[in-house]
Amino acid sequence: QVQLVESGGGSVQAGGSLKLSCAGPQYILSTACMGWFRQGPGGEREGVAVLTGGIIPWYADSVKGRFTISLDNNKNTLYLQMNTLNSSDSGMYFCAAEPPPCYVGQPTTWDYWGQGTQVTVSS
After folding, report:
1. Distances (CA, A) of 60 to 16, 63, 73, 74
2. Which residue in 75, 20, 32, 27 sits closest to 56, CA to CA?
3. Phi and psi (nearest 5°) for 16?
4. What does the pLDDT average to over 19-37?
5. DSSP string, the chain
6. Neighbours of 3 (CB within 10 A)
7. What sign does the CA torsion over 102, 48, 22, 4 have?
8. How confident is the model over 78-96, as pLDDT tens digits?
């Protein structure tokens, strides 16, 4: 049983920043694809950022230049630094893990998920 625990969500005004955290077991964080997904009300879950092998990042076009995914092996924690937030960034954010190969466009294939943390950006 892999447990991923997110934290750091909240409410912020447009232009602000939030940093999400995802704590998990070290062997998963350092070997699996680790990703952040978000889901708006009534919407599909979409990939936001993925870290492969702990070092290779991928970002959705909508967040490039604003979001940064990173891993702290000492703390067994995955982060998502989100800057210059806008209302379209609002949603429930989930941390997920999938042994490679992983497909960000197919979230239903990812094996491990956290409970989610809500991000609300007001304009």
Report:
1. 19, 6, 24, 27
2. 32
3. -85, -175
4. 94
5. ----EEE--EEEETT--EEEEEE--HHHHTTSEEEEEEE-TTPPPEEEEEEETTTEEEE-TTTTTTEEEEEETTTTEEEEEE-S--GGG-EEEEEEEEPSS--TT-GGG--EE---EEEEEE-
6. 11
7. negative
8. 999 999 999 999 999 999 9
